[in-house]
Amino acid sequence: MQREIFGPILPLVAYRGLDEVIERINAGPRPLALYPFSNDTARIERLIERVMSGGVTVSDALMHVDQDDLPFGGVGESGMGHYHGLEGFNTFSKLRPVFHQARWSSTSLLAPPYGRLVDRVLRFLTR
What we know:
This protein is mostly helical. It has a domain at 18-91: 3-Layer(aba) Sandwich (Aldehyde Dehydrogenase, Chain A, domain 2). It has 4 helices and 2 strands. The protein has a two-stranded parallel sheet. Strand 1 (33-34), helix 2 (41-50) and strand 2 form a beta-alpha-beta unit. The radius of gyration is 28 Å and the shape is elongated.
């Protein structure tokens, strides 16, 4: 159980309580996904709050991958970034900001050549 399993094997590990489960998960690399199965809302929220993972699917498995409007991806060793939907577009795109200065701008008053107004202001400030 040191690597991801992509096959028909489901290892089962017994635990005495939820805190032990959280400690065991947090002791290793962050998982790509978390699949808590329960009808206990408080238990689910506790797992989601205390375990950092990529995606989370409650009471099902793998369904978050199929949701095109939800980002999918890992965190830490399980991968970085997202794909699917807007997040995927942003992850795999390079946003190119373009700024156009207006023809008349207050910053143009700071650029040379300096005129009589600037000379007066400087004389006033340096008295």
